[in-house]
Amino acid sequence: MVENTETMKIDKVSLAILIFLTVVWGCSFILIKKSLLAFSPVQLACMRLGIAAIAFSPLIVKYRREIDWSKWKKFLAIGITGSGLPAFLFFIAQTEISSSVSGLLNSLTPIWTFLIGIFIFRLAFHKLQMWGVILGFLGAAILILLGDKHVLGGNPWYAILPVIATVCYAASVNMVQAFFKDTKPVIISSVSFFLTGVPLLIYLFTTDVINRFQHHPDALYSLSAVATLSIFGTFISSILFYMLVQRTSAVFGSTVTYLMPIVALFWGFLDGETISILHFIGMGLILLGVYISKLT
What is the pTM for the complete model shown? Predict the structure, then answer.
């Protein structure tokens, strides 16, 4: 089924939102890297989700009468897969791999979304799309298996963690389509982040985060990085993304998938990370795979 592009309103506002999302989400991986200067991966994941939960709280109050709390387990499942686990996986991964590699591997999300839709939710597919899946995984394999310590930025085994995170993202997208097809996106985001982030924010203060903030010389810098990531990369961007899809189409909104890795590579280069031909080969194959897997 081909989406009707005649009804799409790709105006200046839509293009501005797309550019904003590309830049912000593309910068997420360098922000993760900078936030790791003072805090542990677990603390940072709790901070990111906790700050996002606080930001979404007013929206829960606003839409409180429209929220079906009997579905709280499904909201929680979406929160864990769509934000909870991936946050921990990306922070842990970037203690050993570069931000540019992490950003490239994040592009596998649409491919996993496609596979989970087929094998779990029994969606129809075309044989050509499977070639896209193969190309995408080949690109990821080149990065992980052929990239040495110098290319990846550290232990290559840690490159598997962003791949697992993309599986989580894909599972979350499919659950939203299956369980919350008629629910406002802002409600899904608000409740899922709140249910995930509040417990983690409470747990955060059982760690030595206060001590690190008081004594680590880079604490304020790291906190500002993770706060920027939470407010712009999570709260504002999720709202704008849903707005973009509503103004245009899911196909146009997914364009950000193709542009994000370029921004991630750019920031990695500026920060002194090694950028090799393997990065471009891997990125090319993954994005080509994403494109083919989306053909219908």
Answer: 0.86
Closest by CA position to 285, among listed 128, 159, 140: 140
Residue pLDDT, tens place only, 135-162: 988 988 888 877 666 666 678 889 999 9
Kindly list the domain boundaries of the chain, sorted by start residue.
Answer: 5-293
Q: Do residues 95 and 209 touch, judged by C-beta distance below 8 A? A: no
In the chain, what percentage of residues exceed pLDDT 70? 91
**At 63, phi and psi to the nearest 5?**
-105, 20
Tens digits of residue pLDDT in 46-86: 999 999 999 999 999 999 999 999 999 999 999 999 889 99
pLDDT for the residue numbered 3: 43
Does residue 228 have a pLDDT over 90? yes
Amino acid at 105: L
Q: What pLDDT was estimated at residue 4?
A: 44
Axis-axis angle for helices 277-293, 256-270 (nearest 10): 170
Residues 193, 233 contacting (CB under 8 angstroms): no
Instruction: Give the model's confidence band at 5: pLDDT under 50 very low, under 70 low, under 90 confident, else very high.
Output: very low
**CA 226 to CA 228: how far, in whole Å?**
5
